[in-house]
Design a protein that fits this description.
- The chain is mainly alpha-helical.
- It has a domain at 17-77.
- The chain is 62% helix and 6% strand.
- Helix 1 runs antiparallel to helix 2.
- The longest helix has 22 residues, at 28-49.
- The structure holds zinc ion.
């Protein structure tokens, strides 16, 4: 909500422009939120656990990091062809398989439609 740095980039496979709103790393706002959460939970649980709850900072931190990575990766994945650059870097075969299954599950994908019209026009010629 506080971030307005929307970045434009293109899918490496189908060249569809996509907007990236999430960054991979946490911002200062997130650290402030984590600190606030820690302070509140420490305050609430102080009669029970005293200062032990202060360690929950790391739990919240881990949770925030995980959510951010998930959001970032979900956004990174192309909505038109299902291409995932993270997997492409890790294992090309997995990335290719993901695109295949994505296209199988989404026959209405603009990418597939473009291909179909191409092949049908080739057939008529
Ligand atoms: Zn794509």
């Amino acid at each position: 909500m506080f971030q307005s740095n929307v970045r434009e980039c293109y899918c490496a496979l189908c060249r569809t422009p996509k907007k990236m709103t999430f960054t991979r790393h946490l911002s200062l706002i997130h650290y402030l939120q984590i600190t606030l959460l820690t302070v509140v939970s420490t305050w609430l649980l102080f009669p029970l656990l005293e200062w032990k709850t202060a360690g929950s900072f790391f739990l919240y931190w881990a949770g925030f990091e995980l959510t951010r990575k998930l959001l970032y990766r979900r956004e990174l994945k192309c909505k038109v062809c299902g291409f995932d650059p993270t997997w492409y870097r890790r294992d090309v075969r997995v990335a290719r398989k993901q695109v295949e299954t994505f296209l199988k599950e989404n026959p209405d994908s603009p990418l597939l439609r473009a291909k179909k019209t191409q092949t049908s026009s080739e057939m008529t010629h």
